[in-house]
Amino acid sequence: MTRYETTELERLYERWDQLGREERTESFRALPRQEAQDLFVDLTSQHQAMLLLDLPEAERRIWLRLLEPDDAADLIQEAPEENRTELLALLDDLSRREVSALLAYEEDEAGGLMSPRFARLRPDMTVDQAISYLRLQGPHLETIYYAYVLDHEQRLLGVVSFRDLFATPGNRAVSDLMQCDLVSASEETDQEEIARLFADHDLLALPVVDAEGRMKGIVTVDDIVDVVQEEASEDIQKIGGMEALDAPYLATGFWDLVRKRAGWLSALFVGEMLTVTAMAHYEEQLAQAIVLAVFIPLIISSGGNSGSQASTLVIRAMAIGEVRLRDWWRVLRREILSGLMLGGVLAVLGLLRVLIGDALGSKVYGGYPTAIGLTVGISLLGVVVFGTICGSMLPFLLRRVNLDPASASAPLVATLVDVTGLIIFFSVAGLLLSGKLL
Amino acid sequence: MTRYETTELERLYERWDQLGREERTESFRALPRQEAQDLFVDLTSQHQAMLLLDLPEAERRIWLRLLEPDDAADLIQEAPEENRTELLALLDDLSRREVSALLAYEEDEAGGLMSPRFARLRPDMTVDQAISYLRLQGPHLETIYYAYVLDHEQRLLGVVSFRDLFATPGNRAVSDLMQCDLVSASEETDQEEIARLFADHDLLALPVVDAEGRMKGIVTVDDIVDVVQEEASEDIQKIGGMEALDAPYLATGFWDLVRKRAGWLSALFVGEMLTVTAMAHYEEQLAQAIVLAVFIPLIISSGGNSGSQASTLVIRAMAIGEVRLRDWWRVLRREILSGLMLGGVLAVLGLLRVLIGDALGSKVYGGYPTAIGLTVGISLLGVVVFGTICGSMLPFLLRRVNLDPASASAPLVATLVDVTGLIIFFSVAGLLLSGKLL
Lengths: 438, 438
Prior knowledge:
Helices cover 63% and strands 7% of the residues of chain A. The first copy, chain A, has 20 helices and six strands.
């Protein structure tokens, strides 16, 4: 037995992103038929579409027909608008009808993910009849792990697992065996919600039904692994402070990459300009006590860091359904307490830094190390508590107004907290240092 | 058909995290038998273990025996050390042997994820014989989507999908049908690598073989959805600048939550203290030109933001296998170019901010708006390029020394870039403003 990972084919697959389009077509056409099939099926829809359009027209048909309807629909969705009709025409009649139906759905909802090729049974069949009937359907099915029991109007009555079917005497009726209380999705269910259903219930396949309870298709768990990876990538990129890429990093065009980063980076920069205004406002205090300037990076970054921790925690907990909108109050209570603890730790460290610096002979404190140390410490406490509150509540706010909570990125929270951090710091300094340095 | 999402049971499942241990046991024991089973199987291993130990000893056996060997092993791993032997004793002989074998593996490698209950066939069986034989094995199998063809020494020869088995005339031999070129993992393959294999090859199950090619078990895709979610959560939390939680946010104890955040937050704080040293070093320049202080938050935050973008991009691309160690040079080239573009955009915005501020009558520029504008612009370009390089290369560096690239968190990169940002800024100021403000 050869292990796939080490074969020539696997290496080609890994290098795929890095090849030029011509090289791809060439290497693909040089492969033996079976290997070419394996490779083609494994490629992303985007790469499949590119490759297919680069092949001579006469060859396209066999490759497109290799795909299940849901995968064919994905490929066609990735192809340029003007090629879609021509690609659809390559399919046989049944597949074309199925694929056209799938193309009507959004790519990221149940309808766009599902396959119409599921195993069907009638409730009055015996187990033996059911097994023979499934053997007939076999070649046309996406998965046969579950068989769905439908009435004459295609309404979903229940589900039978193959395991149960196989373990039951052949003369029992399917209706005795089927489980009626089952998890299902509607055609519009969002893919994130679907991934959650799969994870919560350890499903292998999820039936999709319309408003009248008629079965439309199944989403299988192998498609969900991709969805989960994709959603996590999008969230991580948004948390990093940019637009989601929608494609592998190295496969994203350079200008596309720059554009997706420049937008947020510029927006954050413009927001951060408020710090210039704030600092200019405190110019006089700064001139009197340069020592204040010295601590500014330390203080504002602490607010940003604690805010980043809180926002990523909440964003992730929301994405996998652990935290819902109505939990905001529990989260807030928790985060205020956490903020007080974390801020307390940093306050002590900050105070120590000033006192030790002074003891080691630093001249920067101008004779008021304790007052300055307390100013730094109290500001840190305030900034960390504020950062934690901001970071944990911003994702709730975004979700409340139907924006993606993941946009509450570490850089966005840091930017929000920076201005406030300066105000907190100069206010505390005003109170504790007036009559001394100010 | 009731949809699972809206039932009483689903609501209980969702609230599970928020219930006290006693409430959980009570609500669980109040459920009808079938619903209790559904709930128990859906709970995380950690919750299963807690619940099981809270039930009267006489009841534990039936619940533990409900689980597949791999799930039972996970539960036992989550139970306190002192309860493990006693829990193992509740299993029947066969299961106990299987579970003990699984407990010998790490939880996050193939051996710890796999189930020993896979469908086996001999190569010389006919398709009809194979189907009957699988009907016998049915009740004991984890999945029957694939059947594995083994020789007399349990070496894996190939795989037959049920779909193919069902679609083939009954008198053909299994060996004619089986596919020999298959993806497999060894017992020590890490779960992240396994998730990658599933995603790359759209697998439903992955066979695990030992060094001699003997089949030990299968990992099924439903377990992989959990793995993928878990790995993404860990990465997101690390990117947010803290230790991974290992449990849902609301289920993590308060002190545990604080501890996992305080460590990194303090470490970052101590690192950020270098900015105090750097600023104190430039005290004289600051005293001469307070205007420099005014721009410090803007400049260092831009470095942090661009670094955060680059590091999250690379961390994610590494996690899903799009970028490997050997790609560092391609990534570096790309990121230097991106950094130049992005830095250029911010430099222009920064310069405009100064010139417009001056035109609107701000006194802060002391008669040298152009020189100050250029200082700000050039520093921004330098800081963004440096931030981008730092952010994109730190994950490679960490992986190179076998640390988790995800530890190159947004806050860590920001901290690294802050000190350098100050040095860049004061150096540029020294060049452009000497003889003017300095």
